[in-house]
Amino acid sequence: MISIVSLNNKRSWQSVLFEKIIHSLPLVKDERKKNNFDKAMIDSETPYQLPKNVKKQFNIHNINGLDGPTFELLPRNEKFSKTIYYLHGGAYWWQPFFLHFRMLQNIANQNQARIIIPIYPKSPRYTADDVFPYILNNYKTAVKKFHLMSSALTLMGDSAGGGLCLSLLQLLENEKIDKPSKVILFSPWLDISNSNPDMKSIQPKDPLLNIEALAYQGDVYSGTFNTNSPLISPINADFSKFPPVYIFSGSHDILYADVKRLSHKSNKNVNYYIFPKMDHVFIAFPIPESEKALEIVTRIISEQSAV
């Protein structure tokens, strides 16, 4: 199912302003440059610490007993009846941003949901060869620790984290482990080769991502895997083996090109919510369109049983 979602067929002035602000900031980094690469290497080797402003502003706590840093974000009122396992984006190189935590706090509050957030190893020091066994073990340990029923668990992620969600589903399939009941993806990175020619027509409208720089990051992350491997580029995976998948994407995002390509395949269990003129992971922005998207997310999550 493909749904085109807009606000009275118009774009909010807040989203226009926010996009202009993003365009004015030097946010797009080329990790191929030595200085950027060297800094990224240091960052990927440095143990993750939750930023002080995140600890202060959000109801988030460290979870003991899981490999690597993993956090539990709870609703403000501490009451929850649902669980979300969330894989954050960042091109497989970057740690979660402040806007990630802001969005997740909103999702937790609106859905009475506990959100489990693993901080998986990052490139360039680590690759998919390290990330796959890590995230599989982290997921299995979390399910066991919290006695989670797969039928009552939502898998969720954005950008690279969205791609990693689909990688995790394949790893679970390979080990004959029950999968979560549903998967919700925000602007997922489906093909790390960035070889879709339709990306070029979107590039001038995308203030956040660069085709060549992002493809380089994906190539480094792929490690010993071929970039066409379904585990690395899940657009090539068999979606019929997945639980229901819900994809949110904006047409000002170069990754929308592959979302559109995926929609042309006959995957009956994949649902698409396309927001015209929205940017990459717009759902994390403080704009009316993200509020609309989060309303849809709440409807999707409410369909699952409580834990």
Automatic annotation (TrEMBL):
Residue stretches making up the Alpha/beta hydrolase fold-3 domain: 85-283
Pfam families attached to this UniProt entry: Abhydrolase_3 (PF07859)
The protein's Enzyme Commission number: 3.1.1.-
Domain of life: Bacteria
Coiled-coil residue spans: none
GO molecular function: hydrolase activity
Keywords: Hydrolase
Name under which the protein is recorded: Acetyl-hydrolase LipR
Annotated source species: Leuconostoc suionicum
